[in-house]
Amino acid sequence: xxxxxxxxxxxxxxxxxxxxxxxxxxxxxxxxxxxxxxxxxxxxxxxxxxxxxxxxxxxxxxxxxxxxxxxxxxxxxxxxxxxxxxxxxxxxxxxxxxxxxxxxxxxxxxxxxxxxxxxxxxxxxxxxxxxxxxxxxxxxxxxxxxxxxxxxxxxxxxxxxxxxxxxxxxxxxxxxxxxxxxxxxxxxxxxxxxxxxxxxxxxxxxxxxxxxxxxxxxxxxxxxxxxxxxxxxxxxxxxxxxxxxxxxx
Length: 249
Fold this sequence. Notes:
CATH architecture: Ribbon
Order of helices and strands: HEEEEEEEEHEEEEEEHE
Number of helices: 3
Radius of gyration: 22 Å
Number of strands: 15
Helix content: 10-25%
Shape: globular
CATH topology: Umud Fragment, subunit A
Number of domains: 1
Low-confidence stretches: 2-11
Largest sheet: 8 strands, antiparallel
């Protein structure tokens, strides 16, 4: 083999490597933009459903696509394309309306036109209190963030979707609210940790359909104690094995 042949072979090998890397990056971008996007849970507002240290996949196609479906939310079009409406009870990642650079995750409890209110800790939808029953207590700080037993209530929305909520502080400021009327093209979001959630009752307000990023689908990893997934040596004591590959409900 001549020197020229060897040079061409090396050049071709490098070119093929670069091509493979570029194709892989483009494929990852397409998957992240159109199909699935990973998110980590940074706060306790969705306890006991989601815990800090949970890592989950969000389905991007669930509600169609908006500019917020793209990295950095470029202002290239408005509204949604191929859009579909969330259902009551969906756990949704969305852009915080006052500051769209921030991602929030809450549960949809109000659809456009709904009247939403909290009365003595009960969620009221269109004048009817949703079914709410105490199912017990949780005495596990990893789930509740407090070192005492916490009451757990099972709520069932009008469409039959059920989920658990925490009642850490009875008669808290969010337990009694005015009646909210959800505008067209907007949604009312609440956290399952009712006494520790900044949601549509407070600073979040009504969430425009354009701000929806996707529906939380499955927890693929979970680690406690503020540990990083890369700190493998901490897995034996911090990995929440029972939450791995658990569907978000």
